[in-house]
């Protein structure tokens, strides 16, 4: 469920695999140069017996927030990061961020980015800062550290597919 960006898209982010928890949902999100956020979820939550359901959500963010993200990515030299980072422990999040910035595209995937940041990896410290900024803009966050609006998402799923 990774993200490939066209020229019209500025940012792509994806939760490729969640950490060990009761919400096994994955998602990918794109943000256009106009600030339109599109998120596709594969919802697999313990309250719904982990059945995977695809949900599409959309929102719009102000231009100043988009400019702040771009400035943050430039200040950390995101385009100079390695393409892949991998922590040595298991049951951690696997994430991806892709940026179309300054006429260049760069994708970074990270398994256990927060663990690597905690170990002092300076690239992953910046990556996690950028990830958290993007996560705050997502219509559905779905992590233990950023509680999701589950009632909204799960009620939408029930409206489409009925009760389990």
Count of strand segments: 7
Structural classification: alpha+beta
Low-confidence stretches: 143-151, 160-164
Summarize the main sheet.
7 strands, mixed
Series of H and E elements: EEEEHEEEHHH
Principal-axis shape equals globular
Salient structural properties:
164 residues; seven-stranded mixed β-sheet; globular; alpha+beta
Plain-language structure description:
It is a single chain. The protein has four helices and seven strands, in the order ββββαβββααα. Helix content is 29%, strand content 31%. The chain is α+β, with helices and mostly antiparallel strands and 164 residues long. Strand 1 and strand 2 form a beta hairpin. Strands 4-3-2-1-6-7-5 form a seven-stranded mixed beta sheet, covered by helices on one side.
Short description:
With 164 residues, this protein is of the alpha+beta class. Helices cover 29% and strands 31% of the residues.
